[in-house]
Design goal:
The protein is mainly beta and 179 residues long. The protein has one domain. It is built from one helix and six strands. It is globular and about 60 Å long.
Length: 179
Amino acid sequence: MAVSHLEVTRRTPFAADYERVDGKLHFAVDPGQPANTRIADLDKAPRDAAGKVRFWADFVLLQPAARERSNGRLLHFVVNRGQRVGIEFNRYTPRLATLPPTDEIDVGDGFLMQRGWTVSMCGWQWDVQRQPGLMGLEAPQAPPLVALAAASATWAYAVRTSALSSRRREPTRRRTHGR
């Protein structure tokens, strides 16, 4: 997917002499590109003047505050259900699923930060509630399908009953594979 631009909404100091950058990644994709044909209903979504479908996703970037501390590597991970509770590979404390989402990110033991890694996270699910502490994707809305004409349906079925005491009752036969 093509990132058209990056919108920074917050920039704050973070633990271990790092900087936290929050924002939105804006995307613009061409429905006609073969790689994009697998995206459901993309061809039905509204397009801009250039024929691209636009949408955005939340992101967080954790990077060394001093560039010389960076090892030049980025670890990107996809959050689950919009929750960014800790940094992967940093042995963070597991958080109970029953707790409300939080904007805080657990640094854990700082393994990646001690080695100068930049870490990014991005929302990818469109159905995540919009609230602090959760990351999601604002997907384009395809127009509703043409209203179906009201139609009546007729269901035909037959009920076969047989009294248990009936002599004509046949036992149910079970079919097994290979027989």
